[in-house]
Amino acid sequence: MLMTDSELHIGEWHFGWNGNVSDELLGNPSFMLAMIGNNIEALKYANKSLKTNRDFVLKAVSQCGSALKYADKSLRADRKVVITALDAVTLWDSGEVWISVDKSLRTDREVVLAAVKHDETALKYTNNALRADRDVVLTAVEHDGTALIYADISLRADREIVLAAVNSVHNDGLALEFADESLRADREVVLAAVNCNGSALEYADISLRSDREVVLAAVYQDYSALKYAVQSLRADREVVLAAVYQDYSALAFADKSLLTDTAFMKLFSAIQTKFHLDIDITLDDMHLRDYFEENVLTTTAIMTIYPYKCEDLWVFDDPSVGLEKEPFVSGADDIIDMMVLPLKNADSGFKLLFSNTAFDGFQHSLTCLFSDDDGWWYLHEDSGLQGWLCPALFKYFNDVPKILYVAVNEMVP
């Protein structure tokens, strides 16, 4: 029976509402097929005579694979009907359709091959024999590399399958996590993975996280991959700059030594315009400034100030944190007198480096004793001298350092 435009219009607007569609229409093949083309839920409301009609259901699932879940159970066990549905299903509905397939067909090789082209979890719900079937697994990982997790362990060591997985359309290289250990140490496999997703470096063998070319490829793809590189490469100027060029916050993953590396900072200045970032850490964007101060300066930096004598007091200026002629008093000045004894002309100014972590070349350590008058008393371990440091300490640290490591040097003309 042919449908009038009026009847089709009624179906489009009122389909599924109780009482709006007559039993006659719900049993009409032409009307229901037209509705299925516009509403994937249509078969749910069809008369049982249509849900059990093989020819009708074949036409329905060829239009909309998802309609299979509302077909009669007998037809969800019909090989041709199921394969037709799987070939027509949309990506986002594939998992739900596969679950509706009768269990008897979930171990049928042809059916599983059709399913894994759209839904990697189909491999999860089949039997061990098909999870060890090379063609089935290869088809699955070409669609989505994460299907590798469901593959038989022997196939996770198959180089062709793993390469297909890390290059898959819907996985972006992260399938490397599920590859056999031997292939996570395979340079070609790992390069393919990190070129798709730099974060795949996390799953690479340590030997390749030490490989400069591999790490460079990873950070070019994803700056945050820097955190998975070995320490020596996190201190490599070119590698870190490659990451920083993608996003300046990659500095949070760099080795601390680079923050006092003059050559690195000169190179870094070449990209500061990209991030509106000045070397003295003044930022146009306050959000970026806060991130940098919280995640880089206060956790990785060796800070530098230049104290000098002013009216017989040791003071220093640091415009980057808003300090001018900030004095050292209450014993801190005595500690400085002792530390600068080996230096010439210290009264005119000297370089003082300090950090809350030990660094190469530190000369003195000061241990925090207790708080007093909004400041903190520190003990100079070698001399036994004690001195008070004011709240300006919070300009450089989020928390009061338990130990301060210090070095003093003469000013270089």
Beta-strand segment tally: 9
How many structural units, i.e. domains? 2
Helix residue percentage: 25-40%
Find the structural class using helix and strand composition: alpha+beta
Number of DSSP helices? 20
Task: Provide the low-confidence segments as ranges.
Answer: 1-19, 273-300
How are strands sequenced across the largest beta sheet?
A: 1-5-9-6-7-8
Provide the succession of SSEs.
HHHHHHHHHHHHHHHHHHHEEEEHEEEEE
* Fraction in beta strands: 5-15%
Shape: elongated
State the separation between the terminal residues, measured CA to CA.
99 Å
The biggest beta sheet, please? 6 strands, antiparallel
- How big is the Rg? 34 Å
Averaged pLDDT: 82
Describe the structure in your own words.
The protein is an alpha+beta fold and 413 residues long. The chain folds into 2 domains: 5-279; 303-410, no CATH class. 38% of the residues lie in helices and 12% in strands. It is built from 20 helices and 9 strands. The strands form 2 sheets. Strands 1-5-9-6-7-8 form a 6-stranded antiparallel sheet, covered by helices on one side. The protein has a 3-stranded antiparallel sheet with strand order 2-3-4, with no helix packed on it. A hairpin with a 4-residue loop joins strand 3 (313-318) and strand 4 (323-327). Helix 6 (79-88) packs parallel to helix 8, helix 8 (109-116) runs parallel beside helix 10 (134-143) and helix 11 packs parallel to helix 12 (187-196). The radius of gyration is 34 Å and the shape is elongated. It starts with a helix and ends with a strand.
